[in-house]
Description:
By secondary structure, this protein is an alpha+beta fold. It is 13% helix and 19% strand.
Amino acid sequence: MNFPGQKFFPAAVITAVLCAAGVTTASGQNHTTPDPVVLMKTTKGTMAIRVFSRMAPTTARNFLDLVRRGYYDGKTFHRVERWCIQGGCPIGDGTGSYCEPETGRPRFIPLEINRNLSHSAAGVVAMARSTNPNSASCQFYILKSPMRQLDGQYAIFGGVVEGLNTIYGINIGDRIIHAEIVNQADQGNGSGGEENSAAGSGNSSNNNTPTSGTSGQSGF
């Protein structure tokens, strides 16, 4: 779903978010290429997600490609629990996967674990999947509280750097109005992963239901 010519995020908002994420603006002196930042406008407010393109390159590339395509626009949050929110399913019930429009085949990406990333705080963003470790596709979840028991099982690829309170207000059925990349750090233009019809059924519902941890603050 595309919205040609429509301005969702004013320049002042984008600049403020990039500064919060530690991204130097054009007038700054830091020339280190920063991680991409995605602004996601929902029916309950806006959040900014720093995408760890160096620490989880395959998973990050998949997510950024879907953002560029406008895939997430209009998608619902179908799962809301004490410890997380989950969205991005094309069907809206947690059973769907992204299909490549050119081929009609589902896209799955291999499980990508970086031991330097942990489910240690509210705001952690990771890919949902089925019981097959290599079945992540398009659905993602965001923590409301630490869940260290998920470490090593799900691919973390980002963290909420602004608008953390938005995730606490989201209920089942709330939607992503629009998502876009607001800096040019990411240079990848290809698809996020190999098409792998053998990776699993594409049901990316999280079959684990651990209890909620203690509340935490975003540290990204």
